[in-house]
């Protein structure tokens, strides 16, 4: 089993996603939070049930919540789930 989703693990995941996968976070905002006009987004936190984002939507910074389709068990589950979600989002029309 990988690391449980503690606040420090959440911080690590968010830092990595914000630095290396900013385009994926915008996709999450558009595909899973209904913010289809989002132009930028940042992952603020992640927990077993979902992720909290701050997105630039029509000129305003907007908090968004994306719920997962299952409760995450650990950091490896989070990693695999985030990958699957971005792959799914890329198949949807933008």
Automatic annotation (TrEMBL):
InterPro entries: DUF2470, Haem_oxidase_HugZ-like_sf. Residues 10-85 form the DUF2470 domain. It holds the Pfam family DUF2470. This is DUF2470 domain-containing protein. The lineage of its organism: Bacteria, Bacillati, Cyanobacteriota, Cyanophyceae, Leptolyngbyales.
